[in-house]
Specification:
By secondary structure, the protein is mainly alpha-helical. The protein has two helices and no strands.
């Protein structure tokens, strides 16, 4: 009975750690950083600016065609 208890406990702890690492990998952050931390406003602003630039370039290309 102890073996089952420790196996289940190990699986639960392993899944929690794996979820945290998976979130960090998906957000392209360091593995051991806080997976639930908010992105800084500067990063959000840079991402929005890059998206706007891409839209501008694509629109410019379409107009030329």
């Amino acid at each position: 009975m102890k073996a089952i208890k420790y196996t289940v406990l190990g699986l639960v702890i392993g899944m929690l750690v794996g979820i945290g690492l998976g979130i960090n990998i998906g957000k392209e952050r360091p593995l051991l950083s806080n997976p639930f931390a908010e992105d800084p406003m500067t990063e959000k602003a840079k991402a929005a600016a890059n998206k706007a630039k891409e839209i501008y370039e694509e629109t410019k290309r379409i107009i030329k065609e």
